[in-house]
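User: Quick one: structure for sequence A, then sequence B.

Assistant: Sequence A:
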Amino acid sequence: MKQRRFQIALILITLLVLVIPTSTVFARAPENGGENTPITRVEVDETATIVAWWYFNWLEGGHDRNGNDITVPTASIQIQFPNGQKATTFCADMAHSSRTGMRYRVSDEQIDCRVKWIMHHYPSNISGSGASTTNISGRQAAIWHFTDGYIPPAPDHPTDGAIGMVAWDIIAEVNAITDDGANQTLMLVNL
C-alpha cells in the first residue's frame, strides 16, 4: 500500500517545476480523507484535476524493470487548479492509470533530482516548445526510466528507435549532470 501511494504521488511530478515550490508534488486525493503519512498528508488542501490528455505514440520495444516487453502510450496530461490555472505534465507512474476528472493534491514529497532536471529542461507539450511528438515521447520514456525502471527501446528498434534515441540521450545527459542522481541538492534549487 505504501509503494502504491508513493507511485501515485509521483504521477504529476511536473507540477514541481511549473506551479508549486521546489519540494512539492501532487498525490491523488483520497475520496474520504487519508492517513497522515509522508506520502499523502491530509492537512494539505491545494488540488488539481486532470482535464485533458494528448496521446502521441504507442511506444514499442521497451522493457519493464524485469525485462518483460511492454507497449505503452505516451501522452501529455493537462491539469487545472481551482483558480482556473492550467499546466501540462507527464505521467510519472506506469503502474497506475488516471482519467479525466481525477483529482490530485499537493504533498511535500521530494523527487529524484534526475526527474526534476528533465521537467525543468524538457517541456511536456508541443505548442510553443517546438518539440515533435517523437521528442516528447522520448522525454516521457526518460522519466519512466527513472521513476519506474523502464528500459526505453534501443535506437535501432525498427518502429520506435527514434524515440529510444531521444530517451537514451536525455538519460545520459541527466546522469552526467546529476552524478547519476547522487547530487540531491538539485532537488532544493530552481534549475
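Sequence B:
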Amino acid sequence: MEDTNIAKLIKPNESFIHREVRLIGADGEQIGIVSYADARQRATDAKLDLVLVADKSIPPVCRVMDFGKLVFEQKKNLKAQKRNNVAQKVKEIQFHANIDIHDYQVKLNRGIEFLEKGCKLKVALSFRGREMQHQEIGHELIAKVLDDLKEFGVAEDQPKLNGRTILVHLNPVKTGKGKSKLQDSPAESDESALLED
C-alpha cells in the first residue's frame, strides 16, 4: 500500500485482509458497508482509486477517489503550513547617541534590508560614559530612526530604557498576501547582525 499522512492506496492486485469495508463514494456520499470486492469494483468502474482512510475502525473506512490528487493536496497544504510556521528571525542594529550622519545612514539602510526580508528588527541605542546625562538626545535619535523606518516597519512597543540602552522592536510592514515589501529571500545563517561604530 502507498501511504500518505492520512490515507493508504489499496492497489488492485493487493491482498486485503478485511472482507467488508465502510465505503464513501467519490462525491463524499456514504454508500455504507459493502464487500471489499464490491468496493474495488466501484472504484474500477469510476476509474478512480480505492483509498483506505481509517484502518482502525471496524469495518475499515475506504473512499473512492483520485489518490494522486489527494497526495498533491496534502503536499500543497504541508508547504502552506511550513510557510506560515517559519520562525521569524530577529536582526539587530545598534546606534550611539553621537553617531555620525554617514554611519547613521549605513545602519538605517541595513535595517531597511532586514525589514524588507521579513525579519523583525531590534533597534538598540547605547549610551557611553556621560552620555547618560543627556538621554533626551538618545530618545530624539530613536524617534528619528522610527520615523525613517515607518514605511518598512511598525514598532511593536514604545522605546524603553534598559540600563544604558534604549530598545525598541519593529515588525516588518505586510503587503498583499502576507509578504513584506520584497519577496522573502533565503535566510542568512547568522541570527543577528550587530553593527557597531
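The first strand starts at residue 2 and ends at 3. Residues 90-172 form a domain with the Translation Initiation Factor IF3 fold (CATH 3.30.110.10).

User: Thanks, that's what I needed.
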